[in-house]
Design a protein that fits this description.
The structure is a homodimer. Chain A has about 170 residues and is mainly alpha-helical. The first copy, chain A, has seven helices and three strands, in the order αβααββαααα. Chain A has a three-stranded antiparallel β-sheet with strand order 1-3-2. Chain A is elongated. The two termini of chain A are about 40 Å apart. At the A-B interface, helix 1, helix 4, helix 5, helix 6 and helix 7 of A face helix 1, helix 4, helix 5, helix 6 and helix 7 of B. Chain A binds a DNA duplex (30 and 30 nucleotides) through helix 2 and helix 3. Chains A, B: Keywords: DNA-binding.
Chain lengths: ~170, ~170
Amino acid sequence: MSTGHVLLGLLVERPKHGYELKKEHDHRLPGSRPLAYGQVYATLQRLERDGWAEVAETLQEGGPERTVYAITDEGKAELDGWLERLEPPAPHVASPLFARVVVATLAGGGADGYLLRQRAAHLARMRELTLRKADGTPAQVLAADYALQHLDADLRWIETAIARLADLKEEIDA
Amino acid sequence: MSTGHVLLGLLVERPKHGYELKKEHDHRLPGSRPLAYGQVYATLQRLERDGWAEVAETLQEGGPERTVYAITDEGKAELDGWLERLEPPAPHVASPLFARVVVATLAGGGADGYLLRQRAAHLARMRELTLRKADGTPAQVLAADYALQHLDADLRWIETAIARLADLKEEIDA
DNA sequence: ACACGATGTATTCATTGAATGAATAGTTCG
DNA sequence: CGAACTATTCATTCAATGAATACATCGTGT
């Protein structure tokens, strides 16, 4: 429940309500997919159910009702645990790129064309990100760097994949 | 529906039933998370609902019933489209690593320790994968290369993140 | 001065997809 | 007889989207 832990993290500062959490999440984690409101409130309910967050107060002072959530002691302990825990380093690599290459080869189409087009798209995206880095906040720069490093990793892999497509085809035909 | 497209790809060769598809998937896409049976059958139902696959025959020749699915013409067209489509190059980077660094900084703990431990874990995992590459099939080697490139990307990012933690903290405190 | 629409705040709901784990049931083989 | 393999189903949870609801504020034109 990665989203839940991030929300817990945002609650450490002070109690907040759903709308605020969504805004903060999108602001603090630029580059990550913006949270849908539905997901925020669903996640908050799970946090409450598990005792990691609780309703601090319900405000009705002009405007819609706002339900403010606070992190609990249990939630703080859980968050600490999450921060200590090492990210299991990619036990399973979910790679749409790899999947397509295998499927294209299986389906007989050949993956060369796809890989070449993908390489071009990656290069374009990297140029775009590099430009955007210039005027970003530190968080935006870090997020962009993360994306850039992984796009570069894809590019390197694409090169070796192109070179080894023949081997893959042989294995599949066998 | 990436899983669905992969299953479609496996059906191009010839009609297959769920159990066989699960085995083939896990075999053809080493390194990816093994499919749960439940997911295979649920996905097949969606493929059928969308007209991309259909029940070819139901066998009851000694042994449990087997429902064999075949790809339809519509499914072939969809698969071609999927293979043509470029992977939207990381519009949103879902990065547990980045998320933890931000949350650790927000929560006041500081992310240095976490990054150092994560670096060590990555290095260990890379050594392990490199060893396993030696005696792998071409598909396994490609999958391992994909993982290795991305672990290396993480490592590079970790270095720059360590160097820029102070900037991030400053942004958050402001 | 005030009706009106746009914008912003805050939450809920219905639905779908992804994923897990356990349960079921028959077959083969030692 | 029991263990292992083949094949499918079910119950449940989490993740995620998109639309709907509802109230408040604020600027604009008449």
